[in-house]
């Protein structure tokens, strides 16, 4: 998979930009504040219609403008696609593939796949469970776009179920009105269907991830360290339906759904200890990189075409040895990296883009 050409209009700091990208490694270099990360964000946006920095839509539009546009010519093995996205904060943007307008986000998924390495990835290890749940679910959707519908259905059911629980918060289970109990049973069944499907998919992904995670960590750390990723939610052995039934009284008391995939965590263990609390920051950084690299390798193996690799200032966060190790083990395929401080000695890019020369 390759982004052959990128066009930006009023995206972030760019009034207008047209950039052709090498099939191998492109290094985007320049001082901070000139829009290096914005280029990576634009490419990633066309893959997911989201900012990997978690920015709202209005932040993606250049100050003083009403809309922005991102376009890319993408090669998928023997096929070529033109992907276009119009960003209109507070309005209805458009997404087109080969000039055909898409009506559903999931129809775009898989047209372009990316793997992003960013400084904020440290939160994958040291942050809360939500970061790790998103990592798993984004990986699932990249592998099988149909699972986006399962994720959306789970979110919809949780919103409806939580709204009902808030309405009757504090009511004892044995005093629940019959119509409310029936409605809650319906939402329990829907939550069980979507939740079991998502939980099974997560568990299968983690099983496939485990050996690749260990290898990726060893590659970057330049030495074997026992690494484990565990997805073992308490509700899975007995099933989600039974867990919801057991939690109903407490959920009614508190007015919120307390069990299910939205509460799960991916436990990361380094040398037998929880990485979130016991690993050093260097070890946490290495583990975060290994997580991204492991998922990238799974997608490459299963889809026969590596995602586009986007590395945002990643070398500034690593010591010399680990930066050199990461360079030696970068996967094949197209990659775009940014740096404000120069490149490690072993990096030999196919293309160098120096900002602000290409910035409008």
What's the layout of helices and strands?
Blueprint: E1 2-11, E2 14-20, E3 25-29, H1 36-48, H2 57-60, E4 68-76, E5 79-87, E6 94-97, E7 100-101, E8 114-117, H3 123-126, H4 129-143, H5 147-167, H6 178-221, E9 227-230, H7 240-254, E10 267-270, E11 273-274, H8 275-278, H9 281-303, E12 308-312, H10 320-328, E13 335-339, E14 351-354
Parallel strand pairs: 3-13, 3-14, 8-12, 12-13
Antiparallel strand pairs: 1-2, 1-4, 4-5, 5-6, 6-7, 9-10, 10-11
Helix pairs in contact: 4-6, 5-6, 6-9
Explain the overall architecture.
With 360 residues, the chain is α/β, with parallel strands linked by helices. The protein is 42% helix and 21% strand. The protein has ten helices and 14 strands. The strands form three sheets. Strands 2-1-4-5-6-7 form a six-stranded antiparallel beta sheet. Strands 8-12-13-3-14 form a five-stranded parallel beta sheet, with helices on both faces. A three-stranded antiparallel beta sheet has the order 9-10-11. A hairpin with a 2-residue loop joins strand 1 (2-11) and strand 2. Helix 5 packs across helix 6. It is globular.
């Amino acid at each position: 998979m390759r982004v052959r050409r990128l066009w930006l209009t009023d995206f972030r700091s760019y009034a207008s930009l047209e950039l052709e990208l090498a099939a191998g490694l492109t290094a985007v270099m320049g001082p901070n504040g000139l829009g290096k990360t914005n280029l990576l964000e634009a490419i990633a946006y066309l893959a997911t219609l989201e900012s990997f920095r978690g920015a709202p839509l209005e932040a993606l539009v250049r100050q003083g403008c009403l809309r922005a546009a991102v376009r890319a010519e993408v090669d998928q093995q023997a096929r070529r696609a033109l992907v276009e996205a119009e960003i209109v904060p507070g309005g209805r943007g458009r997404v087109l593939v080969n000039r055909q307008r898409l009506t559903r986000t999931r129809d775009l998924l898989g047209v372009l796949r990316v793997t992003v390495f960013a400084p904020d990835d440290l939160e994958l290890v040291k942050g809360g469970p939500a970061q790790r749940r998103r990592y798993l679910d984004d990986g699932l959707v990249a592998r099988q776009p149909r699972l986006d519908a399962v994720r959306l259905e789970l979110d919809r059911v949780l919103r409806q179920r939580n709204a009902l629980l808030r309405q009757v918060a504090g009511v004892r289970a044995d005093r629940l009105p019959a119509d409310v109990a029936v409605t809650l049973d319906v939402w329990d069944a829907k939550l069980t269907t979507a939740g079991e499907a998502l939980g099974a998919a997560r568990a299968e992904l983690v099983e496939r991830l485990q050996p690749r995670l260990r290898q990726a960590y060893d590659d970057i750390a330049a030495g074997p360290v026992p690494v484990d990723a565990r997805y073992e939610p308490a509700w899975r052995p007995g099933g989600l339906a039974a867990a919801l039934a057991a939690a109903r009284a407490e959920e009614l008391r508190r007015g919120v759904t307390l069990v299910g995939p939205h509460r799960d965590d991916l436990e990361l263990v380094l040398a037998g200890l929880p990485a979130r609390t016991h690993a050093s920051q260097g070890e946490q950084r290495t583990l975060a990189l290994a997580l991204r690299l492991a998922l990238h390798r799974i997608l490459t193996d299963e889809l026969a075409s590596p995602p586009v690799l986007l590395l945002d200032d990643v070398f500034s966060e690593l010591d010399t040895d680990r930066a050199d190790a990461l360079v030696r083990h970068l996967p094949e395929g197209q990659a775009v990296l940014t740096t404000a401080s120069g490149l490690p000695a072993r990096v030999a890019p196919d293309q160098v883009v120096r900002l602000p020369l290409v910035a409008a």
